[in-house]
Amino acid sequence: ATVVDALLEAVLPGGTLLFPTHSWALAERPNDLSFDVRSTPAMRIGAIPEAARRKPGAQRSLHATHSVVAFGPRTGIYVRGHERCDTPCGVGSPYHTLAERSGLVLLLGCDHRSNTSIHMVEELLELPRAMEEGRRTALLTGYDGTTLKLPTRMHSFRLREFMRVDEPMSRLGIQRTVRVGPALCRVVDARRQRDWLLEELRRDPGWLFG
Fold first, then answer.
1. Sheet holding 34-36, edge to edge
2. CA nearest neighbour of 23 among 141, 110, 134, 108
3. Residues with Cβ < 8 Å from 117, sequence gap 6 or more?
């Protein structure tokens, strides 16, 4: 909660702050992909996203596996309509919008193995090994208690080597590294990362798959 408050103080009131509140562990349930925006916790991504989810004023996008919570004046731009996206992080998702609006990705004490915005580029290119075949049905309950039954596509669990982007992105000035206490952090220009990765993965679609 202290980290969430510090980030809110740094970004608000003029900026908009997003936290991932992923629940992709739900995908491990073969017959039950049920998500409630009010109560489904952030799963397996640490204590900070869950603290953000519980913060008064948090607005969460409606998505079974890759929701975000947002704070600030442009919250609606990021969270609205996520449930209608064909893929978790593709066109119309918060991750795509962040790149379109030249936002920043902060990897706070973690590295690109936790950089979900790389999945966004995979989805834009429709890389064949990035997604599972077919679609699953998600039951999505919103803030008003209404439940929607919608098809959704799922990421594959094939191993990626996302740290391959680290050295070239530093060299090209797409990211910079800073320290917050003992934590090495990366600040990434989301638009430049997207544009560079689109070029790299068009040239070699298998680059991140080892």
1. 34-36, 136-141, 147-152
2. 141
3. 89, 95, 98, 99, 105, 188, 190, 193, 194
* DSSP 8-state secondary structure symbol assigned to residue 155: B
In this structure, the strands spanning 104-107 and 17-20 are unpaired
pLDDT digits (tens, 9 = 90+) for 103-126: 999 999 999 999 999 999 999 999
Q: How confident is the model at residue 56 (pLDDT cuts 50, 70, 90)?
A: very high
Strand ranges for the chain from DSSP E = 17-20, 34-36, 59-60, 68-71, 104-107, 136-141, 147-152, 175-180, 183-189
Q: Which two tokens stand for residue 41?
A: 């916790």
pLDDT score, position 24: 87
